[in-house]
Amino acid sequence: MCHHPQMRRAKGVMPMALWSSLAAQVAAIAPRTECWFSFCGEPLLEPELLVNMLRHGKSLGLESLNVNTNGLLLTEPVAVSLLESGADLIVIGIDGFSKATYEAARLGSDRDVVYANVERLLALRRERADGPEIQVQFIAMADNAHEMQPFCDYWLQRGATLKVRNQLSWGGKFQTPLAVPAADRIPCPWALTMMHVFWDGRVPRCPGDTEGEEGVGNAWEVPVSELWARLGGYRELHLQHRFDELPPRCLACTDWMTGAAQRIRPAGERHA
Ligand code: SF4
User: Fold this and answer.
1) What is the band of 270 on the pLDDT scale with cuts at 50, 70, 90?
2) Residue 208 Cβ contacting ligand 1 at under 6 Å
3) C-beta 170 within 6 A of ligand 1
4) Which tens digits make up the pLDDT trace of 8-35?
5) β-bridge partners, 137
6) From the CB of 155, is ligand 1 less than 6 Å away?
7) CA of 36 to the centre of ligand 1 (A)
8) Separation in Å, CA 207 to CA 22, 91, 109, 219, 231
9) Nearest ligand 1 atom to alpha carbon 209
10) pTM of the shown model
11) CA torsion angle for 119, 120, 122, 125 (degrees, to 10)?
12) CA angle in degrees (0–180, nearest 5) for 227-232-233
C-alpha cells in the first residue's frame, strides 16, 4: 500500500530554512491551513528537527500543525517532546490489530512496540491539561478488513480517535477495490484541498504524484501563494466536471473515489 520502497526520487530531509520560509508565508496568509509533516517519509527519523519545526510554526501563529507517523520510533522522550511541541494533531498509521495482520501490512515494524508506544503517548497526554488530538489510522484493505471492529473497540477504550479510510492508489500506482462509475465522477478531493512540498522544495501538480513527475515549481524560488495559484486551473477543471480535459494521470487514477476519512471520537473527547 506504500510506494516508498519503489520511490526513485532522491530521499532527503527538509531543511529548517525551507520550513521557516513556508511557515512564515502560510502564517501571514492563512494561519488555519493544515500543515502536515508527512509525505512518503517518516518524521520521527528526525525527532529533534521535527519538534523544532513544530515549535517554530506555533510561534508564528500556525493553528493546525499535524504529524503523521508509523509510531515505531515514538519512544517516551520523543512522545514528551511532541506533546510539548505545539502539535495540534498526531496521527499514527497502524492498519492492523493482530500481530500477523499488522506486520504483514507494515513490513519491518513490530506490532507490540507500536501498540505500547501509542498507549504510552495516550497515557502521557491524559496526565496533561491540554495536548494534541491523537488519532489511530486504519486503512481498510482486503487483508485487514476483518480486524477493523476489534481495532476500533481497542483504541476507543484507550481514548484515541479513530481515523478510518479507504486505500489510495497513489495516483494510479496501485490497484484498489473501489469502483465508482465514470458517470458519477466527482472533483478530486486531493486536488481541491492539498499541495505537497517535497523536502527539496519541489511541488508536484498532483498530491498523489510521489515521484514529482509533473511539477509546478519549487518553493525555494516561488512564493507558496503563487504555487497554489498555479494549481488553480486544475482545480477549476475538477470543479466544472471537465474531467476529460485533465492530464492523463487523472484519467487513470481512482483516488478521487476514496472520499474523506471517517473519524470516530471516544466519549468525552475534548477535541470533538
Ligand atoms: S484524480 Fe488527478 S489530482 Fe486527484 S489524485 Fe488522481 S491523479 Fe491526482
Assistant:
1) low
2) yes
3) no
4) 999 999 999 999 999 999 999 999 999 9
5) 93, 163
6) no
7) 19
8) 17, 19, 26, 15, 11
9) 8
10) 0.92
11) 180
12) 120
pLDDT, tens digit, 9 for 90 and up, residues 121-138:
999 999 998 899 999 999
**Under CATH, domain 15-166 is a member of which superfamily?**
Aldolase class I (3.20.20.70)
Residue nearest to atom 1 of ligand 1 (CA): 250
- The x, y and z cell numbers of residue 93, run together, are 498509521
The pLDDT value recorded for residue 132 is 96
pLDDT tens-place string over residues 203-259: 999 988 989 999 999 999 999 999 999 999 999 999 999 999 999 989 888 888 776
Nearest-angstrom CA–CA distance, 188 and 235? 9
Cα 9 to ligand 1 centroid, rounded to whole Å: 19
Helix axes 76-83, 47-59, angle to 10 degrees: 10
Nearest CA to ligand 1 atom 8: 206
Please give the number of the atom of ligand 1 that sits closest to the Cα of 206: 8
Q: Report the residue among 209, 242, 253 best suited for mutation to probe ligand 1: largest number of ligand atoms under 8 A from its CB.
A: 253
Q: Within the chain, which residue ranges are assigned CATH 3.20.20.70?
A: 15-166
- Residue that has been written with the C-alpha cell 488519532 in this structure: 135
Asked if residue 204 lies in contact with residue 215, where contact means CB atoms within 8 angstroms, the answer is yes
